[in-house]
Please model this.
Amino acid sequence: MDLFLQGFSQIANLSTILWMAVGSVVGIILGALPGLSATMGIALMMPISFQLPTATGIGLLLAVYCGAVSGASIPAILLGIPGNPNAIATVEDGLLMTKQGKAGQAIGGAVVASFIGGIGSLLALVLFSPVIARLTLAFGPAEKTTLALVGLVIIASVSGNNIWKGLLMGAFGMALAFLGTDPFSNQLRIPFAKYLATTPLSKGLDLTSTLIGLFGISQVFFELRKPFAEGQHVEPVKIEKVFPPFRKLISMWKLILSSLGIGTVVGAIPGTGASIAVFMAYNSAKTISQNSNGKLEPLGSGCLEGVFAPEVANNAVTGGALIPALALGIPGDAATAVLIGALMIKGVTPGFHLFATNMPLVYAIFITMLLANIFMAVFQLLGVRLYPKILSVPQQFLLPLILILSFIGAYAIAGQATSVGIYNLGIALVMGLVGYYLKRDGYPIAPIVLGLILGGMFEENFRRAVKLAGGDYLVFFTKPICLLFMALSIFSIALPIIAKRKAKN
Amino acid sequence: MTPFRTRKPLPFVFMLVSMFYFMYVLSLGASTMIGDEIGGDPGGMLLPLVLSIFMFIASSVLFLTDKKSEGKAKDEGFGVSERRLFILTVLISIFYVAAMRSLGFLITTSFLVFTLTFFYLRGTVARKDLVSWGIGIIATLVFLVALYSIGRTITRFLLLSSRQGRIPQWLGSTGAVVSIVLVVVLVLYLLVLRFTRGYFHREKAKTAVVHAFDACMITVLTTELIYLVFRQMFLVELVRGLITW
Model:
């Protein structure tokens, strides 16, 4: 209880509440704007979070995350264009409801569903993450090495449509992580060391600048490949009866529980993400509706059930993805990878160590997650008539804004050190160009982030494990947990290949 | 037909990168843990070498299998205008990074935001728009520096007066100073917008002058807000450059 109160005191201040409110609104707006993702929003807000106390900063990022995932439903319902892939499955019934004059109920339903999904998955996070973190007590360096490997391999193999691209990107991310200084011998590991040894690059690539470049700047370059989308014209829609009837909610309990379970579990599996969960939840809801003896409306007919199922699932992913992120340091998706990056910049390493030594911060994260969901619901309901107007902001204004925020974000991380700030600008720009060319040719970006984050952990534990085994590389094949993780790695590579072959046949 | 005409260039680039990485790691030589006299440490060279070999294999597979025709549809819509805007954005970004130290935050930021917004609104980069762009950038800088100077004067006055006890001390706190400057700057900005917008938007036609006006107003607001949040609120040292006050 004492630790909980300590955690509560970290966030019980006006600054946290205000920054989370700002984060929530920014998240909803970013989520609502097609092409801008939750990951990009978190990357852009990282420099601001860096200037705030740890709990407040994480609260800000969580508010952006929850807001962006939920906000994507606004254009999906009003225009039939999902703000990001998380809301793809909301389009069908959401748009039909708008055409039937029930836009208010659809948006309100999406908000309530997102709230239920967020809170439900938060419960799972609170219940399971300490248990999983405790399990990692049995992990030595060898187990940690294979854990990092499995996290990397899973996300690399399921990201994008070509497993080789995912694996290459994971390896590229690790190669970037190895730049800088050897952690055990302090030997410089940068090219042109003669010239770069005295620069900030000798400490390796700045994580924030790299993430901002990969997700923010590259997206601006990528958007320029197509003619500018003028602000979307939203027909004035009647937005009334925002809250779904209570009786209707009760009748959907099975559908809600199933979507919640799917979202949380899928979110907890590294590399999967909300875009998979929403389709699984939608299909499951279809079956539940068919077997409901007419109590539930058939999905695809413009009904609340069709909005509820994917929206519960996509926000349930937020809590689910945080389970492996906090307990193991293995992010569930790209957005949580960036969140882990933000924690690491603050000197907080996720995993059992965090639960054992900084439980107040863990409680603070849980509470901020709760607040993030509350703010998301409140601000989305308050602005239900306002957000459609955001869709009319033309891209010509947005893109320069995102570009300059990305640059300033990368620069600001350096604080008072202007030279470091200028180097960060350079890193962000180079990584932006790299990210652009990779996106253009269909290479997934998420494995690079995983490689960057897990590369250091992998190398340190690998060398420690081999050293402790007296130079015996077979140490990884003598421990059951290592074997389990390696089997998982092989399985995660084999599964997409088998699935692809099956689909071809 | 050579393989380079049908294959995408990126896997080839990665093949080169992995080869360079391999040679570079070899050139570094082995390094072991400090105090590893009894041995056992695989050394700092092993993993980078394995990675470079894996990257070479993966990129070779992609070089052979990832053909250009698959990506052709992605180039649809990337016409001459879009290409020009893309190149302009990259060049301006490079300029921004290179010139920040000497010109300072205010000048480079307003240059970047104004130029990009203006040409994005025009839809392409054309010589006939250069005059409007030039006048617009000067007007933007004048307006921005005026607002900035007013903000700086208020900030200095509040900080100095609170230290000397001429005004209540809380008025000199970061939060109060930022809030007061924000309100004053916003009021002035809105006044200018209110009295000039009607003049520039009197006709419906979206001429270069109208776009320059829109870009100017967006640029001034964005730059000033970024300055207030990062410099005044978070005390980030934004380079002053030519504007030294």
Notes: Helices of chain B lie at 3-6, 9-28, 46-65, 80-103, 105-122, 130-164, 174-200, 208-233. The CA atoms of residues 91 and 212 of chain B lie 20 Å apart. Chain B touches chain A through 66 residues (CB under 8 Å).
